[in-house]
Structures are given as structure tokens and as C-alpha cells.
Description:
This protein is mainly alpha-helical. The chain has helices at about 20-35, 130-140, 140-150, 150-155, 160-185, 195-200, 205-245, 250-270, 275-300, 310-315, 325-340, 355-385, 390-395, 400-405, 410-445, 455, 465-480, 485, 490-515, 535-555, 570-595, 600-610; strands at about 5, 15, 55, 65-70, 90-95, 105, 110, 115-120, 125. It has one domain (about 130-610): Amino acid/polyamine transporter I, CATH 1.20.1740.
Amino acid sequence: MFYGPVNRADNTVQEPRLSPVSRLGALRLRALELLLTARLFRPGPVRTSLTTRKVPSRGCRAGLKEQSIEASPPLQLHMMSTTESKSNSPAASVNVGTVGEKDTAAVHVHNASHGHYQEEGELRRGFSLLSCLGLAFAILNSWNAMSASAQIVLPSGGSVAMLWGLVVSALATLTMAVSFAEVCHVYPMTGGQLDWTYLLVPEKYRNFASFFVGWMGSTGWISLAASASIIVSNFLSGIIVMWNENFELKTWQSFLFYLAATIISWGLNAFGLKILPTLDRIAGLWSMAGIVVVSITILACSSGRFASAADVFTKFSNETGWPDGLAFFLGLLQSMFGLTGFDAVSHLVDEVPRPARTAPMVMVMSICLGATSAFIYLVIFLFCVQDFDALVSSPTGPILQVFLQSTKSLGGATALLVIFNLIAQIFAGQGLTTVASRMVFSFARDRGLGHISPYVGHVHVGLKTPVNAITFVCIWIVVLGCIQLGSSIAFNAIIASSVVFLQISYIIPMTALVIRGQACLEGNHHQKAVWSLGRFRRVINSIALAMLIFTTVIFTFPPAIPVNGESMNYVVAVLGVAIILCLGTWFVDGRKNYHGPRDIDARLAIAATAL
Length: 611
């Protein structure tokens, strides 16, 4: 039975008539909803039923018609196939239900012209607030990522850029996070920035803009997942070199470690859906425990052999050939890398109860927790460095070198690295693959990947997870890893790619926020927004946009001059290939078949019930 407005053949909307008894029942359910939603941040499923409310049809309210939607009893909602018609088509109608007891999220799409339902499996709402926060903290993995990439910043500003650059990066990233948290509160959509772009930019440009952002965002998340695999590879390679100084590790051997890490992430995501929320909670706790245990251990073992406070807080070094100021900003790549990916939870909103409240809070909290824990850990890390020159040139990597300098034991250094850093990085790789696959899945569902979109945008009915999207992501992770076979600076290229691509995907929706302001955020619901920047919105958005543009340009510079094969910044080449593929797909398929997020009216209606 259809409980909402009817999409008739003449494309008009007929309001349903309610009897007095039905109206009384609706008022009782509304009172129950207000009682339940007063508990703002309680994780877990919430059953709600709404009376008629207005939601925008396809984008910001300005200049667009509104559509009334009345909530139906709890339904199982199923994701639409990429081959179905859009929900606003005259020939299609959409049943929108609330989250039921089974915590499944989806859309039931009825095609009136064919008289049947199209179902493509379902995604479970299994991520609570704690599991989302654990996933976000484990994905950022800031303390581990920043110490593992210390070789990037030490020649480009030294400890000054490592610590105070982190402060600059944290403040900049926080402006981005709070800006997008406000958008996510109004429009909690799985596509994240690609869906927001479609909703925020003018109608004339929205299709191509969201298509381009989808490509940049998907490539960025794939690159970020690849960075986790290459860090795991570097850890294992460093252990072998540390125990066997005369052993010459081949690049193909390191690539095998990279491949193993990728396969682990693929297996956990494809077949471990039921344990992923629990695994994400464990990952967050494991990462926090690692900070505490590793810090205490290296402090205790380094007793009496600490670096001076001047070396830790004020030592500036510049071995790049660039001017000191530019070298400092080049060093920000390390800290920006450690904080990149704060939008992770926005790509899981179909699997998060009450996403309009949970997702924005997790986005902001992840930056605060990641930056604070990383700063404390890096201060301890630098105090335990006894030879800064050895840290830069060590074949084992910076983390193992500090552990070895502190513990004076091969076994002790190995145990610390394996138990905490290595396992935390494997958790991060699994989480990054989860988010990357959801981003790609959402984009493919909207026909963003051309002719392979129906395949990649499919949810496995039995496993209830987008297995094809997970496989697609992991294949591209392996392709990116092939850079490791031909270049000794693949690590820098992959890290720079992950930051640059994601920042490009943030720039376009942030620009729309700065230009259009409140007009973009009139809402997907009539209630007062919990997350609102108010009068400070445009200032914060402008600061975020300025930092995004500036750092994106800076991170494409060569890390050192004069430029040669070893100092070239290969992110430019990777970016060029991605743009060529994006434009090629657009002209071959996208301009005809890509029309932005599918079922956007129904998805916004579902989001409206999650308040």
C-alpha cells in the first residue's frame, strides 16, 4: 500500500486524505517521535514515524518545487539498481519508509510503466556512534600516519614543521570539517561531497560538477587506502632490513607485502560485514592503546637520553632547495595526510542510525581526537630521537629507527612496531577500503563510472555488501601499488595523491557554500538545525576554501630542487591520468546518462526521518 503522495501521469502531486482517526494516530506518533529524538546523541536504531512534512525536490529550496511526503510504517528499503529510472520520473513512484527493527536502509522503487519492483539487496544500519567514531579514529590513524611519514617533513622544516605545522593543519582541517558537518546534517547522503555538490551548485552546472567531484573523491579514497597498504609494506620491509643489514630487499618483495595487505582489506570487507562494526570499535581502542603503550615504553627506555627542548620545538631544517617559507608549507603534507579523510562517516550514512546527527558529530570529533593525540605522541616521539640525521636516512623507516634508538633492542623495537603500529595500520587499511568502496558504490549507482556502473553499483543480496565495488577498489589499489615497482619514491607519490585528490573534491562544494551561503542550506527538514555555523558560516567556509586551494597547489610542487627523476612529484602525472579518464567517461557516457544522484527525493526523505 502506498502511504505518500501519488506521482500521477501528469506529474502532479495529490495529497493523501486522512480520516480523523488517522490524524489522531499520526499526532500520537509525532509525540512519540519528539520524545525519542530529545535524546540527541544516543547511538543505535530509532524507530520514528512522521506526519506530513515538506522536503526540497532535487537540491536547495531556492527556485525548486517542494514535495510533501508522509511517512509510512516501518519498511525494508532497498537500493535501486543503476539501470532503473530516476525517482522523479513521471513513470516511477517511490515508497519511503522509516528505519525498522532490522535496521536496513534502502529505497523501494516501483516502476509504474512496467508494474514491478526492482530490488538490489540492502545495506544494514549496523554502525553505532561508537563504531563510527572508532572507524573514523582508526582511519585517520593520525599518530601512526604522521610518524610513519616523518621522512617527508624532516627535510622540509624539521621538527618545527612537524609540530607547529600540525597545529596549522589541524585548524585548517577543522574549518573544513565543521563546514561539511553542517552540510551533512542537512543532507546526509552516501555520496558525500559528490551528492552535496549536486545539491549546492546551480542547476546549470550540477551534473558535470558532481561527476567531476565523484571522480576526484573516489580516486582520493582509493589512493588513501593504497597509502595504508604501502605503510604496511614499509613496516614489514623495515623489520627485515633491521634484522639483516646485509640483505638487499627487492622492490617486488616489498610489493608482495603491499599485495598481502590489500587482500586482507578486501577479505574483511567482502565477507566480514557482520563483524565490521565490532572490528571498528576494536580498531579505535587499539589505536588509542597504541599511543599510550608506545609513548610510555619509548619514554621509559630513553630515560636520560632525551633530545633537547630546542631540538624538539624550535629546530628548523631545510634540505629542499626551496625558500624556508615554501619548505615549511611543503612539510604540511605530512600533517594534512594524517588528518585527511574526516568525511569518512558521510559515506556510511546508509548504514548509520540517525545519520543527520551522528555523522556531523563524528566528522568534527575525529579531527579533534586525531590532532590532539598526534601532537602529544609526536612531542614524545621527537624527545626520544637521539640522531635526527639517522632518522631521515634510515633504511628501516623513521618509526623503527626511533624505537631502536630508544630500546637498544631489535626484539623490543620489532615487538612495539608489530603489536601496535602494524596492527593499527592494518585496521586503518580495512576501514579505508570500507569507505572507498562505499564512495565508489554510490557513484556507480548514479551511473558515474560509465558502462561498468551497473556492475560496480550492485549490492550482493546474500552478503548484503557491495562486493563488486570492494573488488573494484582493491584492483585499483593494486594498480597504484605498481608505482612501487618502478620508483623509489612511490610512497610520497601515493600520499600526495590521496591528499590532493580529496582536497580537489572538497573545493567545489566549499566554493558553492562560500558563494551561495544560507541559500544552499535551507534544509531537508523544518526543525531548527542542531549543527549550524550561524553568522560565522561564511568566514569559516572562506578560511577553509583558501586553505584547500593553497595547499592543493603547494602539494603538487616537487619536494626538492633541482628536479630530477628522484625529486619529481608524480602526483601531477597521476592527476593528469585521472582527469583524462574522467573527461573521457563524461563525453562517452556521462553527459548522456549521468543525471546526478538517483532517487534523490526519496533519499532526502529518508534522511529527514533520521532526525
